[in-house]
Amino acid sequence: MTNFISRNLIFASLMGLLLLCLSGISEAQNNHDCCLSYSTVRLPRWAINGYTEQLSTEVCDIDAIIFHTKNGRSACANPEERWVKKHLLWLSQKLRKMSL
Amino acid sequence: DYNQLTVPCDKREVRNFTKVFLPIAYSIICILGLLGNIFVVMTFALYKKTKSMTDIFLFNMAIADILFVLTLPLWAVNYAAEKWIFGDFICKITRGIYAINFNCGMLLLAFISMDRYIAIVQATKSFKLRARTLAYNRLICLVVWVSSILISSSTFIFSQSYSHSINETKEICEHRSSKETKGTTLKLLLLGMQLLFGFFVPLLFMVFCYAFIIKTLVKAQNSKRNKAMCVIALIVFVFLVCQVPHNMVLLVTAINMGELNKSCDSEKKIAFAKYITEALAFFHCCLNPVLYAFIGVKFRSYFVNMMKNLWCLKYKKYKTQSSRISSDTYHSRQTSEIMSDNMSSFTM
């Protein structure tokens, strides 16, 4: 009887530990600046200096494109929107021309 | 029209707070945690020759707590400097150790409550069971540590030192997975697991085991029972006070994870709440030596002996005097004696 209990006990703890293997500390620091939503208006090309990418696989929660404007501000944009994709293409072409 | 543009949420206020608060809080936790847990480790290593299952769990918990608080100075520097300066490898190692020992500590809390449950509630049936688990103690400890290292592997894999998109000159040590993974889903999974095994599982074990222990103690005719029940109440109370606020913040974070259009104000409030409650949760490992080891009469007498000897430097003389009870004598004793012996770890 006791043998049975102890064997079950060890089995149960092993199972628990196995499940535990999947766990880990994931929580991100909360003191970094992140985009929380997207701009509703289109940003004109002439105002844009460059961009950086915010990835949901990193410290922030949503995917976003951050456009840097010529007057030193940042604007969050939805990477799925057509105008954003066009702007990115235009910026990368500009960059290629500069490097030639 | 720039007013309709959405700017990234500026958390400078939070950073100004964490820059001062966290280095101070982490230093206090590190010093107190080291002090208490090193005393526990020394007492067990030098004086306590008879090692019960509980002793072994307490010893391991103290080791886990020491390793955990040793990572805190690095985080204190990280928050004070507002950037990670130790490189990618130290980032992975630090976050890994931090994860191993946090989860290991929580797991051991659950095991300790289960061990006490077997010792007291199953006291009459448990001679053989206890003897058997004592024989398995090395195995169980090995399993606890190996699994704790496995736990940390996910944290180890997904931690990296990289430059954050908003301020590209500053390195941060943070979660990062490959671009192919679904970022929010993975984060949510890891957060859920942390909540489950870092809080709900130990809580469930404690509530179940201590409830049955109290039920047994109420029936028992034992002079020490009121004190024992007080200690149990204290252990559960401290666990709840330290862990519930932090885990509630984590729960709110998990619920809102990946949601669009969160307000910057509420994000800042959650960030403040997270850092304050997290420091409280970390403070738990400074209280563990007091709650589990120093509260026991036997442990205290060993500890007092050790301190006296260290003071007088009559180390060898006392070492040979400390009693040695073999597991054979353990078997032959009466149930009531074993019961009061088991309860000695609870007695103030």
Structure description:
Chain B: The chain crosses the membrane at residues 20-45, 57-77, 97-118, 139-158, 195-218, 230-255, 275-297. Chain B: This is C-C motif chemokine receptor 6. The complex is a heterodimer of chains A (100) and B (348). Chain A has 100 residues and is α+β, with helices and mostly antiparallel strands. Helix content of chain A is 37%, strand content 17%. Chain A has a domain at 38-100: OB fold (Dihydrolipoamide Acetyltransferase, E2P) (Beta Barrel). Chain A has 2 helices and 3 strands, in the order αβββα. Chain A has a 3-stranded antiparallel sheet, covered by helices on one side. The longest helix of chain A has 19 residues, at 2-20. The N and C termini of chain A lie far apart (81 Å). The radius of gyration of chain B is 23 Å and the shape is globular. With 348 residues, chain B is mostly helical. Helix content of chain B is 77%, strand content 3%. At the A-B interface, helix 1, strand 1 and strand 3 of A face helix 1, helix 3, helix 4, helix 5 and strand 2 of B.
Quote the CATH topology of chain B: Rhopdopsin 7-helix transmembrane proteins
Q: Strand arrangement, largest sheet of chain A?
A: 1-2-3
Number of helices of chain A: 2
Shape of chain A: elongated
Assign the CATH class of one domain in chain A. Mainly Beta
Report the average pLDDT across residues of chain A.
77
Taken from the alpha-carbon principal axes, the silhouette of chain B is globular
Tell me what portion of residues of chain A adopts beta-strand conformation.
15-25%
Helix content of chain B: over 70%
N-to-C order of helices and strands of chain B: HHHHHEEHHHHHHH
Instruction: Kindly report the oligomeric state of this protein.
Output: heterodimer
Structural class of chain A: alpha+beta
- List SSEs of chain A in N-to-C order: HEEEH
Biggest beta sheet summary of chain A: 3 strands, antiparallel
The largest sheet of chain B is:
2 strands, antiparallel
Q: Write down the CATH topology of one domain in chain A.
A: OB fold (Dihydrolipoamide Acetyltransferase, E2P)
Helical content of chain A stands at: 25-40%
- What is the count of β-strands of chain A? 3
Give the uncertain stretches of chain B in residue-range form. Answer: 318-338
Strand content bin of chain B: under 5%
State the end-to-end CA separation of chain A. 81 Å
Main location (chain A): secreted
Pfam families (chain A): IL8
Protein name (chain A): C-C motif chemokine
GO molecular function, one term (chain A): CCR6 chemokine receptor binding
